[in-house]
Amino acid sequence: MIREIIMPKLGETMEEGYLAAWKKEEGQAVEKGEVLFEVMSDKTTFEVESDASGYLRKKLFEPSENPIPVTTVIGYLADSPDEPLPEKPADTRAASPTPTAPQSPAASSAQAPDTGRVRASPAARRLAAERGIDLSLVRGTGPGGRIERDDVANFAPSSANATAGYEVVPMTPLRRIIAERLTKSKTTIPHFYLEGSVSASNLSRLRDAQKKQGAEITYTDLLLYFTARAVQEFPLVNAAFVDGQVRVYPTVDIGLAVALDDGLVVPVIRDCVHLALAALSAEVKRLASSARAGTLTPQEMEHCRFVVSNLGMFGVERFLPIINPPGTAIMGVSAILPTPVARGETVVVEQVMRISLSFDHRVIDGSYGARFFVRLKELLETGELGT
Known about the structure:
Layout: E1 2-6, E2 16-22, E3 29-30, E4 35-41, E5 44-49, E6 54-59, E7 68-69, E8 73-78, H1 122-131, H2 149-153, H3 159-164, H4 173-188, E9 191-199, H5 201-212, H6 219-233, E10 239-242, E11 245-248, E12 254-256, E13 258-260, E14 263-265, E15 268-269, H7 277-293, E16 306-310, E17 329-333, E18 337-343, E19 346-360, H8 366-382
Parallel strand pairs: 12-16, 16-17
Antiparallel strand pairs: 1-8, 2-4, 2-7, 3-6, 4-5, 6-8, 9-19, 10-11, 12-15, 13-14, 17-19, 18-19
């Protein structure tokens, strides 16, 4: 029996994925539940298990920089290694069939586009991926012009780029996903922005008190704690704009932007309002660790409406983040800096940070966003734990 292997839909917003790696070769046995291939989508890599035992009969796609639409047939699983394939091949025209060198999903290493069906040994493909070499530019010395590892090792790039004074950096699947999603956000969502200063004295006091009790609480933990309570009071900030509809959700699920070596991901802290500070802090640490290890699940990145992006640790004084669709708002947090502040007729120096809010104007108006900021500022400057 022949079974189709398809590009899975790993999240409700996923429309296409990148084949990162096959874990089996054609003709090899596969057990049900064994990892068969890896897919990159929504800014992370997932292992996909086989839903049946058998043999990997045919691979229709190789790991590539080209996206493959969900439900596209990417290969066949068979009961025997030589079972006849369907007379009419699956329709794969929706995706680009261009094969390229395999990519290490854990490292998300850069690789160059491999145009055309280039004949190359697996070792040559691996080395080309590591060095970011376009195999279509390499002259093969193997049988029938096949590219061998030594051909890649000895390859000297054309002097054209060198004389032009620049280097072409290949786009990894992760960077392509980021580019596509954020370009779509900026071109389809009418952003508007609000900014303001917030005293960090209260957060510093609460953090010091927790530290004395032996708790490793960060400013990000406290920001998430109070932001969740502000979001709960303003339902439109906890909404998603989908198919022309404004969908307001009962639970406050907040995304946290986590930086990686070659991009970022946004894991989601579920039901933040009902998490005590210690539990919230532990969940933030767990999700950040999983994000950097590349082990986040699709469910840990779905249903995110409001995002917090904190660049304060880099000394950034101001930035305007881009909304993460289908959410309607995102908050940018800048560095805490000593700042002169007028108190009556005197001027004092306080620890102050700037908060930037980006809103979707299709859902949120300026006055609504401003009232949200006022409440958020109040909670950050005067809020207590347990409130």
